[in-house]
Amino acid sequence: MKKILSIITLAATAASVAIAAPGAGAATPVDLHHVNLKNRTTTAKLIWQPRGYDPHLHKWLHRIDVPTLLVWGDDDRLFPKDYAFAYQRLIPGSKVTIIPECGHLPQAEQRQAFVAALEGFFDTMKVAA
């Protein structure tokens, strides 16, 4: 059974990245393309109407009760990093990582820094468990 770990990062409503779990076998470029396409389709469905804006979102974020890492690009012009800190204040126990020299897609623009942030976050989860 192929193990996939889906990580949801908040950027307005949601965007996701899939990472093959260690030992699951190497993902082919075609597999990664399909995962990327599915992720983009899901993101579009979630934020298309009403254009990524939910005036009631602040009422729901406090209900997130799992460890949450917000990974944000320092130069994100679509959703500036102030959004990350606003989300952090609304999501109990959440952490923010701001990636320098990065725009709206840290997982694509600064892949190594993005993965390092996730690995560091996962390491803290292992220690806590």
CATH class: Alpha Beta
Bulk shape: globular
The total count of strands amounts to 4
Which architecture per CATH? 3-Layer(aba) Sandwich
Determine the number of helices (DSSP H or I, runs of at least 4 residues): 4
Order of helices and strands: EEHEHEHH
Q: What is the oligomeric state here? A: single chain
- Looking at this structure, what is the CATH superfamily? Alpha/Beta hydrolase fold, catalytic domain
Please tell me the overall pLDDT.
79
CATH-derived topology: Rossmann fold
Q: Strand percentage, roughly?
A: 15-25%
Strand arrangement, major sheet: 1-2
Residues in helix, %: 25-40%
Description:
The chain has 129 residues and is of the alpha+beta class. The chain contains four helices and four strands; from the N terminus they run E-E-H-E-H-E-H-H. The strands form two sheets. It has a two-stranded antiparallel ribbon. The longest helix has 19 residues, at 29-47. The chain is globular, with a radius of gyration of 15 Å. 16% of the residues are buried.
